[in-house]
Fold Dihydroorotase.
Amino acid sequence: MTQTLLTGGTVNLNGDLIHADVLIANGKIAAIGSKLAAPDAEVIDVHGMLVTAGLVDIHVHLRDPGQTDKETIATGSAAAARGGFTTICAMPNVDPVPDTPARIQQMCARNAAEGLVHIKQYSSITAGRAAGPTVDFAGVKQAGAIAVSNDGNGIQSADTMYQALLGAKQAGLPLAEHVEEDSLKHGGVISAGAKATELGVPGLVPAVETSQLARDLALAQATDAPYHVCHVSTAVSVAMIRQAKAAGIKVTAEATPHHILLSDSDIPGNDANYKMNPPLRGKADCAALVQGLLDGTIDCIATDHAPHTNAEKAAGLCGAPNGITGSETAFAALYTALVRGKQAKWTLTQLLNWLSAAPAKLFNLQAGKLLPGGPADIAVFDLDHGQVVTKDEFASKGQNTPFVGRKLYGNTMYTFVDGKCVYKQGEQF
């Protein structure tokens, strides 16, 4: 029997921080308690470290198949492991699009064979993620899809969204929507406002997001269907979701680390590592996301990990594709800015919940909690020693992040998936 004993750490036992050991045996959590005895176990001393359930990310772009110069299942899952994530959900904007039961089966098989962590698969909402018919929701669910999304594009037809909400509801599949009204974009590349004017680039007004969100909330109410909003970025959206929840609409929402931590005023110039969709908004929008998580309007945090090549990002704000990486910096960036120090807004256990149990619950994933007898999906973090983010340390192929050069605390020391150590700081994958 293979055993590993993590000794002396501070364990996040589903919201309670306790000093305890964790015994792993045959891929499961065998015991959590003080001074556990396991003479045959490999002992790992984690004194002074945080031991918690592996993080869960319901919004990741792995680029595989179709754009493997940017990322692969192997490199994307390694990046997740380096960030403490043990379960991730792969968006369907790949080529070919996983939009049929057969393609979902193929992707699930590849995810299991090539991934270092648990990879759950999205189906698209429509065939080819294009305007047109919706997918066979019951069929893709039976084939292994855990949710449906056209992320990267908003669904422009109200009727298509109406039919999608009904179909996903009937199949029991979460529907996660990227809200974006194309007719309002006008070539914008960052948020409309003073920074766009300063840099001389076209801006995106908040109504690009909020107008389609308003439509979708009305449709979710009309269909009584669950509806999940991806990467909320504006204070107005937060207020709309809050009001919708109060009215009994079955809406849930996620926010990203970059929309929480960065505003458009942080954009230093023509630097496409600050370009993503939706764009960075104002400081008041960041504050609304922080508060929205605290009051339950926003349900969880997801990275929207979106790797691109350095050559693509070198094209600047007007030429580069949207998206930044997030898997390897998410916990540390949020912990450093919002939990550690005198300006803390959140508690450690709140942050951990929004990055583990909460997203797992939204998508009915068996993940995000430390339970005796449950899977040994575990992350170990060093909260006390900061490290400067450098590009050459990334496991992801993508180095496109604005967090390079920042000193972050809460770096991952170990990640275990089904009891196997898939990441140890300082060792190569």
